[in-house]
Amino acid sequence: MKHTIHKLAVSNNRSNRSRSILIVLSISLSTLLLSMIASFGCGLVRHNRENAGNIYGNYCGTFRQVTEEQYQKIKLRSEFTNLGKTTSVAEVNAKDTEELRQKMGNTIGKVTMGLVCMDIGAADNTNFINSLEAGQLPQKEYEIAASREFFAYLGAENPKLGDSVSVPYRNNKHNKFKEQDFIISGILKSQETGYVQKSFQGYVSLAFYESLMPKEMRSYDVTFRLNPSVELVGDKEEALKELGALCGIEKKYVSENFGYLVWTYDPGTETVVFCVGIALIVILVSVAVIYNIFQVGVVQKIQEYGKIKALWATKKQMKKLIWREGILLSVIGIPLGVLAGCVLAAILLNQIIVDGLQRRGYTSLIKVSVVSLPLMLLVAAAALFTVYLALRRPIRTVAKVSPVEAIRYQESTSSHKTVRRGGKGISVTGMTLANLLANRRRTFSTICTMGLSCILFVALSNIAGNLDIEFEVRRSMEYGQFSVELDYSIGDTAYPENNLGNIQKNNPLGNELQEQIRAIPGVTEVKTRKLFEVENLAAGGEDNEDMVGNHTSICVMDREQFLRSGKGSELGNVDYDEVSAADGIIYGYSHFFADYGYQLGQQIHFRVEDASQAEYQGQIMGAFGSAPGMWVITEDTFQKLGITGNVTQKIWVDCDEKDKQQVEAAIQELLTGVSHVGTDSYDNVMQVVQMSSRIMQSGIYAFLFLLGVIGFLNMANTIITGVVTRKRELGVLQAVGMTNRQLNQMLQLEGILFSVGTVVVSLAVGSPLGYALFCYAKENHIYAINEYHFPMLEIGIMLLVILALQMGLSFLLSRNLRRESLVERISYQG
Q1: Of 21-30, 491-500, 647-656, minimum mean pLDDT range
Q2: Which among 633, 654, 650 has a CA at the least distance from the CA of 558?
Q3: pTM of this prediction?
């Protein structure tokens, strides 16, 4: 009997080729999605675990501003291994001429350069060796390693190992620059970041730093790993702070290497949870799709199954028959899906992750495989379980029906007796609605399963459609097409002429330049920002006593700028009217607020560094996530200070798109010979933002494409199965007078109604889900997420694609039906 059931299952699958092909495709695609998600997640976990050190640095955390005495305590603790010392040594005065900048492709202002030193341990922790193109880390007192661009800004165009280069440097703002000859011991790889680099570092030896700085004044950033015996559970940063306290390190000087800790001590938990969540959704959708195909086919063939049961087949044998049909199709679909999923996962991992990291300079990455045999077996088992869930209802339907009921069975949605109503006339629309309503359970389940396929598409469209590139650009370029800003220092006693307060005494961005810019043909708007230098006159608390006499900057914001800066990561009260009324002050960087010992409500006392010598006293009312200055006051408060000089620090210039080139040229001409001024443009910032957002968009749209494929397959199998299983019925209708045109209209209308139902279900469920995802992304400051708007474009494209595919399918099926004669269709046995 087993052999008979097997032969019967094979025969059923062969006789229903269309249905069988659709089921194989559905199983294969479902398995593909499961395999791709599992393989991609596995590959991502493996990649990050193997390359955590290469990507994030091979260390657990950093202790900042460590003295020699504290360093000796750290060395004695068994909890720490692989210690590395690094510190900033000096500022470098680059030969930053207009001619050199043009040669280097830098059109956006002055570069900054510095010297840093590190020991062998720090070089190992930060993978310095991977940054070297040639040579080695400096060991002797007057050796240096840097990129070719660094040397170019010092006048050395073709640097070679062993060459001597003169470096003008100073180790603090109280000393003047002095020249020192260094021997090139290493050349670093250039960072091909896709945009102009404005900051460069040269690496010198620890011996050079120690020759400059007395032992009692030295301080380092110490990177470290932890002894394997140390267990990190719970809050890892808090655990590192407790270890730091044992060595006399204050909590504010302890920072964790988050990426390294996550992938080394807790490898991929969030990734695994995310992949499992997506996989469960895919299984749910797949169950609905496969069930829908089987159920429609089973109901249409219920009379045939009744005949088999009449030949003394038991319930158990009937269950085996349906299950065997599904297993035979799964044997084809599951391996294909597993294989295709692995290939796609490997491609996606390489394109989205590996290539992106390599473009950012991570060239020594360890390649990993996305294939895991146990995981693939688990995927195959999950796919088989999906088929099992989909077949449970059809199996029960076939097993419980009696032979007599099966032979006289007519598909209906109700077990109650009904009276069929006729009419004097009937239209194509009436016939279509009558068919759908007569089988309302099948109609409802079909619409729901098709809708499920599109729910995730709609939900993720709320993220993809709300990626606001313009918003991200405007974080850097707040207004207009171009910006002109002062290039200044704060608290430079060796070169006081470079300090903001002194530059603004004869402000190059004053009213005269502003009027000249406004007079440029094509300029439509000019905006300015005020920022001025102040001296701290009061400690404002025990933790801030060492800040008395320090110089800092205060930015002035109007209501619009205040509102813009107040979005995200703010602390306390950042309401413009309330801050103005209290003449309060806002700290510029909320992340460092507590680290520097500030508290909300604390009193601040500053003196303005200009001719007015005005003073400001007020309380700290809040903190922004980030701001252009260390402190922020409102325009109303600024007017009360009585500052007489021009404290413009930045100018934004707007113009029409067609006038951009001529306006830029005119601005550059106005600034020729003007010192302490740099420029930037909207296009430069846009280039950087677009490159950063490309990876995120690629991942989302790749997943949306796959969701679109499974949605189309669901719709296709529904329409095709419905037409094939009703071939005899449609043949009878044409035999009694239905024209080919009316047949095509009926099929088109059925498809349209299914499509409309699908869209309603997907929007009703997907839109609230998508909005919830958007709110979560905004609350967690996900890249380029700003204001919500309904993703009309993405949803519109989905609607057009669904309608176009549905109409195309209906047309092809109608034409295929017409190729068969009426006799063939009427005699068809599905």
Answers
A1: 21-30
A2: 633
A3: 0.63
